[in-house]
Amino acid sequence: MGIHLKRAYDPPSSGDGIRILVDRIWPRGVTKEQAAFDLWAKDLAPSAELRKWFGHAPQRWEEFQRLYRIELEQHETALDDLRKQAAAQRVTLVFGAKDRKHNQAVVLKQVIENQT
User: Fold this and answer.
1) Considering just the CA atoms, what is the radius of gyration of the chain in Å?
2) Which UniProt keywords apply (predicted)?
């Protein structure tokens, strides 16, 4: 399975495979050309309420993961589609957060890999 993570502000590369933006909002200051996203998976991003509550505060990380996983349960078809894509080719989940360890792409990758 080929699931990788990358910030939206890092330049795309030919090794990224399918680039999927997993944020609900477009990354600030990034043009469509710079981003080179193949898909924008808004439905798999955390809800606006959860995103605002979390605020990328590390002390809220454990609870954010729990709540986000509950939200993801409502999107099983989209998760299955993503699992199939990742099984067939390299997939890069792209996120806008500065924190590379505490963001929704980390959780989404875990969910996809653990339920394959």
Assistant:
1) 13
2) Coiled coil
Pick left, alpha or beta for residue 81 (phi over 0 → left; psi -120 to 50 → alpha; otherwise beta): alpha
pLDDT at 1 over 90: no
Cα–Cα distance, 21 to 95 (Å, whole number): 6
Complete DSSP assignment for 81-100:
HHHHHHHHSEEEEEE--S-S
Q: Which of 18, 75, 20 is nearest to 46 (CA)?
A: 75
- The amino acid at residue 107 is V
Sign of the CA dihedral running 98, 100, 104, 109: positive
CB within 8 Å of 109: residues ≥ 6 apart: 3, 5, 93
Non-local CB neighbours of 37 within 8 Å, separated by 6+ positions: 19, 20, 21, 94
Q: Where are the alpha helices (DSSP H) in the chain?
A: 32-35, 48-54, 61-72, 76-88, 104-114
Write out the two tokens for 56.
């990328």
